[in-house]
């Protein structure tokens, strides 16, 4: 299951990013963009992330996965379309296609709780 190695890499990167914060900082949520060609099963990735995060500053963080569709473009007629499975020829002109999106594996964001209560920006409406 390649999701485990991906999850371990994500946790390693979260830990690396959190070194710029204080020792009490923890990840609250992690957002990944995953292209359709990566063959990542979201449920498996969530399970593996939870397991890989045990004992780290990512433990308990929510993993949000944004699916990126596979989009291809014909090299001859310029037609773009979304596919579920990679197509190598344009259905309109039978020209060769190139992949525009679907290969992504991007750590998009990390929401961090730095462990400090910041009341300086609190207003009466917040009370």
Describe the structure.
This protein has 127 residues and is α+β, with helices and mostly antiparallel strands. It has a domain at 2-69 and 101-114: hypothetical protein PF0899 fold (2-Layer Sandwich), CATH 3.30.2320.50. Helix content is 23%, strand content 31%. It has two helices and six strands. It has helices at residues 2-18, 42-53; strands at 26-35, 62-68, 70-74, 80-83, 97-101, 105-113. The strands form two sheets. The protein has a three-stranded mixed β-sheet with strand order 2-1-6, with helices on one face. It has a three-stranded antiparallel β-sheet with strand order 4-3-5, with no helix packed on it. Strand 3 and strand 4 (80-83) form a beta hairpin. The chain starts with a helix and ends in a 14-residue tail after the last strand.
Write out key terms for the chains shown:
alpha+beta, 23% helix, disordered C terminus
The topology string of helices and strands comes to HEHEEEEE
Number of helices: 2
The CATH top-level class label of the domain at 2-69 and 101-114: Alpha Beta
Low-confidence stretches: 119-127
Span between N and C termini?
47 Å
- Return Rg in Å: 20 Å
- CATH fold-level label of the domain at 2-69 and 101-114: hypothetical protein PF0899 fold
Helix fraction? 10-25%
Q: How are the strands of the biggest sheet laid out side by side?
A: 2-1-6
How would a crystallographer describe the biggest sheet? 3 strands, mixed
Tell me what the CATH architecture of the domain at 2-69 and 101-114 is: 2-Layer Sandwich
Net shape: elongated
How many strand elements? 6
Query: Average pLDDT, to the nearest integer?
Result: 89
| Helical/strand content category | alpha+beta
| Relative strand content | 25-35%
């Amino acid at each position: 299951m390649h999701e485990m190695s991906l999850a371990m890499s994500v946790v390693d990167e979260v830990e690396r990013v959190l070194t710029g914060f204080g020792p009490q900082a923890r990840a609250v949520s992690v957002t990944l963009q995953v292209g359709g060609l990566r063959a990542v099963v979201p449920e498996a990735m969530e399970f593996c992330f939870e397991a890989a995060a045990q004992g780290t500053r990512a433990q308990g963080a929510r993993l949000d996965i944004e699916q990126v569709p596979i989009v291809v473009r014909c090299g001859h007629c310029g037609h773009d379309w979304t596919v579920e499975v990679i197509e190598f020829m344009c259905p309109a002109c039978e020209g060769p296609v190139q992949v525009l999106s679907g290969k992504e594996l991007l750590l998009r964001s990390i929401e961090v709780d730095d462990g400090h209560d910041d009341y300086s920006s609190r207003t009466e409406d917040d009370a």
